[in-house]
Fold this sequence. Notes:
The protein contains no helices and eight strands. By secondary structure, the chain is an all-beta fold. Strands 1, 2, 3, 4, 5, 6, 7 and 8 form an eight-stranded antiparallel β-sheet that branches.
Amino acid sequence: MFCFYNESEEEQVADGVSRRVLAHGGKMMSVEVTFQKGAIGPLHRHPHEQLTYVRSGRFRFTIGDETHEVSAGDTLYKRPDILHGCVCLDAGGVNRHFHPTAGRFPAISA
């Protein structure tokens, strides 16, 4: 299956945060999320594992009880049901890859 970028739609999901579902199927989903400086991906949790790849910019991510600054090229792993979120320190974007549970797409965040 091919998923073409110019056929996907960007949607505004919060102040300074937009996302674009790049591809999804029965067991995988890939989402591009773009942040303006100062935008927040609020703390939240969900029942699926998630990988987040930082494409550009700089972020302060909290995963569980750890907080670290990350930038382009860094990758983060989030186990199911762990509290996580971020603050964008320098405008940029991340790609999120996960297995949505029962076909549900998770809410905004990183």
